[in-house]
Protein 1
Amino acid sequence: MDKLDMSIIIDNLKADILGRNIEYFEKIDSTNTYAKTNICDIEHGTIIVSETQSSGRGRQGNHWDSQKGKGLWMSIVVKPKINITDSIKITSVVALGVRKGIKNIINESVHIKWPNDIIINKKKVCGILVESVISGENIGGIVIGIGINVSHSKDYFEKIDYASSINIESISTVSREEVFISVVNAVEMELDTFFITKKLDIKELKNHSVFYGKNVKVIKKDSEILGKVIDFLEDGQIVIEDYQNDRIIINSSDVSIRGLNSYID
Ligand code: BTN
């Protein structure tokens, strides 16, 4: 297995703050768990990256598969002055950055499946898991977990037909180092703007969403809602119009969204 070449990454990273410190592991349980556990000792902008994770975590308690040396499994720790309401928007801000970072190095269209998946050719190539560490009434730190499938082989996804990797879906072949550099640079630009304005770029979110204007199935723990995605809101929620023309605001926590017939369609 080729290990990540950290010297290429350090020499080419243009981000001012993100990645100034990088903690590299060959194996870890989960970069997010490590970052949360050690949040007090980790500086703003630090990136934890590992070749593999034994207990990688996704949203809603899902396991995140982290094949050794085939993807980027990393957590970015930030410690902004931000309130809890604004912190909820960070998943969308990071999704815009990761989308742009991947788009900048490949020719294919790259989309966002709200709230946290990055999609190429209707397949998930990346997931984002943002976790806040609250101390008292303040945010002690935010852990931005990013898992990107880069160079897995096609047969790896035989049984997970909604997922894929960048190099399967793209004509050009990219290295994990290129993806790391491009994504971290783009995420830093999005976060810098957001930490000043505290505003989401709704226009960009709509432009790059796989579901804006489409009929979808919103899956909650005990129920499902069918309807069309008609809006993205300033606070990070989305609006669905159901078949009775009622408008329902959907919060990202504990829901997942699918197309009516498949993952996207
Ligand atoms: C999802 O799609 O449900 C989110 C997946 C997030 C996976 C990344 S990999 C690096 C970081 N460490 C984890 O345990 N999870 C995130």
Note: The pocket of biotin is lined by residues 30-32, 53, 56-59, 62, 64, 73-75, 116-117, 127-129, 145-147 (CB under 6 Å).
Protein 2
Amino acid sequence: MNQVSLTRKSGISAVIIALSCLSGCVGPEGKTVGQAGAKKGYEAGSSLIDITRISAVSPVYPVVIIGSGPAGLMAGVYAGRGNIKNLILQGNKPGGLLTETSEVENWPGEISMLGKDIIEKMRAQAAKWGSEIWDDAADKIDVSQWPYKITTQDDKVLYAMTIILCTGAGPRFLGIPGEKEYWGKGVTSCAVCDAPFYKDKEVVVVGGGDSAVEEAIQLSQYASKITILVRKDKMRAAASMQARLKGYPQISVLYNVEPKEIKGNDLQVTAISLYNTQTQKTEDFVTSGVFLAVGHIPNTALVKDTIEVDEQGYAVMQGRTYHTSRAGIFAAGDVQDNRYRQAGAAAGQGICAALDALSFLNEIGFTGEMATKFASPKKEGQNAGTIEKVASLTEFNGLLKQSSGLLVACCELGESTQAHEVLSSVLATHEGVTCSLVDIRQAEDVARKYFVHEAPVFLVFNDGQLVGRFAKPMKADELNEVIYNISQS
Ligand code: NDP
């Protein structure tokens, strides 16, 4: 088990971390610094983990969470509850893979709930506990200095005393001819995104896991026939997931087939060539779309030269902790979990990683007094993190009447993940602002009253008066700035 021993310099507040690891820990310079029983530290050089260095750079966050799926958001909740300021960099897919899932029936305490609704609630919870949530992604992590330097895709620079990697995993590809060529022309890995393009068409889903079942069910709303292609004689998906397929006569399963090539007419997919492991024959199977559900690859590209990863690329944990091989860097969720890969498990791991990070901060001498200096304000009250859904002018007028101060309404065609994300960010950033999502397919009277002829349109009200109207998609940062300016005027 990884042990952390600390040496306090007598008479001064600096704390220097020294590690002894069974498998060898990696220091900020990337060198392996510890072996069984040996005590080696960072006592020399610029890479010293020394708590006094936190005032040498700015802005410094005690905890930076990279990724905003269940692991990242729960890490934020626990860091916040520990009264530790934390920043969540949402990444390029805010909310992670769960936002692409439809009904989730195995989330603790919920009989059935949409994946994106779970994420929305969790994001609100993290925001309530003070997580700062940025609509940005980590681009580089420089571990040659501590606090670790993070550069974001929007070119912002910040420093982290600890990092919790919650970057999840991305879709795996088949690596067969035609896959790249027809990517976006019939080959895809996202049924939620692309299913509507396959109305009344015949499609295949490749894979035998839970994702394949999910994809097929999502496709059933549009496609006329869906065939799940399984390479073995049985599916890997949970029995309960397989049982769900019985309710969909348009879905069938073809076993013992290995995809060998995706074929098309240059413009779009027309067939997939399948090798039958029973008959040992290869035949073309006519299809308009190939939906890939063949597992995932951990998103460790950002850190693969920085922390130890296994042969499949998963972050390696130290013993029964969520420490990576590098001091102050932790990981949770699918980026380190090749075994359970469940949203509920990821959330639990996010909690553990946050608790490990808080212990680490404590061990390096980050005192309660320092924590207070860094603390983020908690959000209290009815509007902390709640997006009010509106389906009529009567409801909207009621909301306008109730809300004192600023109200931001996003007029959209039905549910929109992007609108949710932008409004959640507003709630996380500004206290006392009410956010509302107006479904203009139902609330036609709101659309008429406020001349909404396209979507999205953002309406900003101050004390019931319309003070801003933006008929375009807006990024969270842009809308946050608008709200900041209005609140200052
Ligand atoms: P899995 O790794 O569970 O399944 C991948 C599937 O793809 C397997 O059936 C595998 O076949 C097949 N496969 C892999 N490579 C190839 C190939 N080259 N050719 C053909 N088939 C191939 O991944 P999932 O994405 O389905 O699930 C990941 C995790 O997420 C799981 O833990 C799952 O339970 C969870 N999940 C849960 C959901 C829910 O509860 N609602 C929804 C979606 C996912 P083989 O079996 O032969 O190896």
Note: The longest strand covers residues 157-165.
Protein 3
Amino acid sequence: MGWWRGLRERIKKRQPLRKYTSFKIGGPAELFIEPKNFTDLQLLLAQAKKYKKRVFVLGAGSNILIHDRGVKAIVLRLNSGVFKKISFCGNYLELGAGVLLSRAIFLATRKGLGGLEFLSGIPGTVGGALAMNAGIPDKHIASLMEKVTVMDYNGKIRLLKRKEVNFTYRFSDLAKYIILSCCLKLKKSNQAQIQKRIREYLDYRRATQDLTYPSCGCIFKNPPGDSAGRLIDLSGLKGRRIGDACISEKHANFILNLGQASARDVLKLMVLIKREVKKKFKVTLEPEIKIWQ
Ligand code: EPU
């Protein structure tokens, strides 16, 4: 462990990751650290490169399935002050990558700034949301982004404008960097109306999605012009269970962890879903979640 130099005190070995994920599934990280600042992060990346260690960044853990064996990698969680900064400048909102979307929505609403409402109920961080271009079918976080500050894996910090980033449905090429912060453009809006829109989005989620058991949200991306949930539902798979992993009765694109589900159970269910949907509709579903192994 000598190679960690100044970070030795704070690096944890074999840290269980399950508690950092919304699925409550996953084995340990070989090494786990919450860097305090950009210098920490640069030092870590340099050491990871030198010793050929993979680096994974954990946001709110709401869109990942971590293998039961865990990951042979350094797992970073951007949870300290510098990664959680929030500042307003007129209609612009500057957010650290570790800020929760719910917090950003709350503070923007208090300032009478709208635009983020459609992200209500998504249990992610700003960095995670940008990395996967989170949103709902017709609105994505990319539409609000003006600029993003990232660090490449050589430790170099860059400021990218919106047009320098490639965003498509549930994809951004920001995933090749570590996202540090971003600037979103919002619009002045009536506070009561913002709150009403938030309530509507949350009500729709509660009515259509099972939020009572640990899950990862939607497991598969929607195929063009359709809904993966609808196809899985029509394949008669609601309620199918492997171990403690179960396809939700409420929304078929949700796999629920009923208690002690393993990553293996979830992966088996995913294989079953893909096979049945392919057989019935000739559609190949692509995972929306990230799988760490
Ligand atoms: N449907 C069914 N059966 C189901 C689920 C859905 O028939 O089991 C039908 C619905 O009745 C509706 C259509 O499929 O006609 C679309 O369903 P829904 O409005 O729930 O939207 P979705 O396309 O399944 C998307 C996002 C969700 C987001 C909702 C709400 C993806 C993969 N999913 O779901 O995002 O919350 O819209 O706007 O894009 C996530 O990304 O994790 C996620 C949950």
Note: The CA atoms of residues 48 and 54 lie 7 Å apart.
Protein 4
Amino acid sequence: MRRCLALFVLLSAIACGPKPSVPEAEPTGVPDEAPADAGADPVAEKPTLPVIENVTTLPDENPDPDIVEVTLTAQPSKQTVAGLALDLYTFNGQFPGPLLQARKGNRVIVHFKNELPEPTTIHWHGLRIPADMDGSPRIQSPVPAGGTFTYDFIVPDAGSFWYHPHVRANEQIEKGLYAPFVVHSDDDPKVARERYLLVDDILLDGKGFVPFLGTNHEHVRGRVGNVLLTNGSVQGEGLIAVARVGEVERWRVVNTANARTMVLSIENAEFRVVGTDGGPLPAPYYVDKLEVAIGQRYDLEVIYTNLGEVKLLSSVLTRNAQNEVVEVPYDVFRVEVGGPSVQSDLLVWPTAPLPVRPVDATVSMEFDVVNDPQLGIIWRVNGISHAHAPLFTFEEGQTVRMKLKNLVGPEHPFHLHGQFFSVVDDGTPASKQPGLRDVALLRGLGSLEVIAYMDNPGRWMAHCHNLEHAELGMMLELVVTPKN
Ligand code: C2O
Ligand code: CU
């Protein structure tokens, strides 16, 4: 742990970044109003989507206002990260990959080319799209090296999502294949600015990536990194933004780490949670600290109440001089807030509360591990690892209570493909968990109860989003049969 901390300090000291750029006087990122008669107009204009700061947006190649068409290439790329030349895997040569944005109900067409030296797929994490477009290697045969595939689907829900491969994900994601995906809704309240922050950690030594799955620790705890990254940059490496007092921004946050639950807080500004994995919340709420499990998203409204520096802090566990484990704040993003101040009102989200649905079925899942004399550490659900036959079958439209129990130490961020769920009991008395989710944390030796809405028929994966646990077996399949 001490060596890890030394590396943190060392690597962040090497980095020095460009000065913050000056914001334009008028807030950008405000979508143009669609003309009132857009539907009747034979040459309908493509609506302008909000600019999302801190990420690069994929160009949309299709003039049709209801279609977003893009090209994505997975390719190796050598780039300097944390002062080291790393052999990354990237989408379109960018780390993190480019932002894909669409409006709710749009058709999205992705021309994908695999220029990696190995097979891959793209999983559109959180999007409730047809199963054959979900990038699950159980359903779509992986795209071979040099191969192509066209993803084509309608995006049904507004919110913050992300995309990443689903083949050897522990290695391909760690090497850089992850990117933001935003689906806008015409109801999104307008803010001064939107940002997407992808919080990650990677495990490096002096030469580059530490070999994958090389230690027992990595098999058991997962690959806990020693370099924290926000949008691919280390602390202080250019991720400094500017804003004005009184402005309200929307920050979309995702935890893209392999094995670290992020604990985030914001210093010197107010913030409230306005959205989760499944999109906007009917009632925003305030917290001091935000626990973001791997794969989860939070939409925050950040209100700049004071002049000066605002910091997004990530708590990192380390040892103090007395050799006790303590949480230290580490700043992963900074905003310089200047004047003159502007007047903004807090925004109101026009979101209806979730309808309450009676539960039709209850299933149980037990998460554990065995140490096989031949195979080593194997992670299991209900005694099965890498389950290739569906563990459960449901009918489209069913509401299912899932009771999860963790029989061993490490926590498991449970992820369900293709559907959303609500967390009804996260095993702690205090924590608040409103909103729809596709990932929820099953704590060490803890229990978790969720209500899943099986509204999307198909064959789906569910797995632990600790990518090492998933790779070492903690994956299962379930089937949702179409109604009729
Ligand atoms: Cu984000 Cu099955 O994964
Ligand atoms: Cu796990």
Note: The first strand starts at residue 52 and ends at 53.
